[in-house]
Amino acid sequence: MRTIFWKDGVVLIDQTKLPEKLELITCKHVVELLDAIKRLAVRGAPALEVAGAYGIVLACIEKEFTRVDEMKSHLIKTFDLIVSTRPTAVNLSIGAKRALDAALKGGSIDEIIRLALQEAEKIAREDIDRNRKIGEYGSKILEDGDTVLTYCNAGRLATVDWGTALGVVRSAVSEGKKIRVIACETRPLNQGSRLTCWELIQDGIDVTLITDSTAAHVMKQGMVDKVIVGADRIVRDSVFNKIGTYMISIVAKEHGIPFYVAAPKTTFDWKKTSKEVIIEERSAEELVYCGEKLLAPKNVNVYNPAFDSTPLDNVTAIITEHGIIEPPYDVNVPKVLRI
Amino acid sequence: MRTIFWKDGVVLIDQTKLPEKLELITCKHVVELLDAIKRLAVRGAPALEVAGAYGIVLACIEKEFTRVDEMKSHLIKTFDLIVSTRPTAVNLSIGAKRALDAALKGGSIDEIIRLALQEAEKIAREDIDRNRKIGEYGSKILEDGDTVLTYCNAGRLATVDWGTALGVVRSAVSEGKKIRVIACETRPLNQGSRLTCWELIQDGIDVTLITDSTAAHVMKQGMVDKVIVGADRIVRDSVFNKIGTYMISIVAKEHGIPFYVAAPKTTFDWKKTSKEVIIEERSAEELVYCGEKLLAPKNVNVYNPAFDSTPLDNVTAIITEHGIIEPPYDVNVPKVLRI
Description:
The structure is a homodimer.
Chain A: E1 4-6, E2 10-13, E3 24-27, H1 30-38, H2 45-61, H3 68-83, H4 91-104, H5 109-139, E4 147-150, H6 165-174, E5 180-184, H7 191-202, E6 207-210, H8 215-220, E7 226-229, E8 233-234, E9 238-242, H9 245-254, E10 259-262, H10 285-288, E11 289-290, E12 293-294, E13 301-302, E14 307-311, E15 317-320, E16 323-325, H11 329-337
Parallel strand pairs in A: 4-5, 4-7, 5-6, 7-10, 10-15
Antiparallel strand pairs in A: 1-2, 2-3, 8-9, 9-14, 11-12, 15-16
Helix pairs in contact in A: 1-2, 2-3, 2-4, 2-5, 3-4, 4-5, 5-6
């Protein structure tokens, strides 16, 4: 099943409910979709790209328009709203922009709807195709018997299907290699425990859960052959990904373990450097509570950034749908991706 | 208030209830105390030292003895039971051994009880005294305005009073220095969020909570001047402390931030090396559940070691009640501690 798809609205797996239950929700209005994005019912850069595009489709149909210019102006306003929902992931705006640009070419209300939906569906198909390619390229780095440590969820649930970092594992497994995964729980929202473990168990792939801070210890014990993570945004000097990725990259380097990033071309924002990227800060509640349970004094100060930046110096190679990119990145990224 | 004290039994703060409520429990039988130790109602190497000693006192009074030899044989059996409760912390056995040795000198049932209790109370007083000394020595490394990152809880709640790593902070603050603390939540049992934040807020010390994996990020932002952690056991080549400490030591080194360990002499087990220390593995449930909330699929494999070992090469200095010990440790530890 796809993580996100269109059926009389945006249908998506509510990832906040996993692993307790597999629940689908249907968003009929942009505000519902944005709420789902904000509370991370749908997350992961590639999935957000499709979500952004579907957001424009929702904007087309959530109201009865009588005039084309009124409709187009609503789409443009919606685009700005979508982009501001989660500032760090560049893919959200890329998907929304593509659907918007397609829609704006329409001459009638029906044509605008058709063009927006057509583009969104194209993005969804492209995501699956490129993840398969990322998997094919990436599986070359994995040897039979390897153990891969991963962080957060860069799997099927972060994309439309197959996954990026976990797509590499899936491709290697489907080629007959025996691959084990060590999943870091990924605090504070536990995407590793909730999502990565869930989807790997669904597929019968061997997975072991550890706390984030156990990563260095398992590396020292010789239990990890490679690290593969996803990315929310890749700029000229750094990879932005879930908070903690930077820490994993440092301990991998300390133990001489290769550190790979698996991400599609759309994750690259090659005109920018890390200084220009805003890191989203999330609420204190994410650390103070776990469900109903109080984990810290209610009035404690909390610093809860959602992402960190890993210098490209710490990255062994980047696995994309156009091939594996090795350093020097300033030369090879533009060459391989043609950007 | 002391974390643990004797009043018709062993009275202790049930740390599993913090920060929700401050609840005291009284153990009248050894089995109750060992249960409290196992479920971490009382934890922290120095507090366990006193707990071990009180355990021997409980063994003296939990039954009606008629013969001295029968009583002594019960104490010896209880000692073995206490020591096996948590294999990594050496202090538990040190405290129990001291109380046992004192008790075995008694010639009558009453004398045995008196000697055991006297020794246990002496250990408790000594702990407070040595923590004050660790604080006095340690505060010299802290400058006015410093921010200290700490991991787990090496505070008042890990000791009888004052604390080791947090004792250093308390001493510096009581000397009028302005010190800020960044506390890592310390998964999976959140001693950082639950205990460190709680006790620092109680004392009006500025504390900010982060996830464990945010440590590298705050260091890169220049938000951390020094790291101070406690220790469960220090051997010739390594410091054993809460899982994750090793990770913090690596990222501190990467950012050129001094990494200090604050611990009393009893934490040193200088005849051993890290290969001879058993690392306690705890249950999968600690990662799969958080209170009632399911965080991971119920059937997932979990690797949940309670401790890791940080090579002494990563340690800038060790703060003890006998002074600050700098490298080379093979020379200076025996010299300063006379072991």
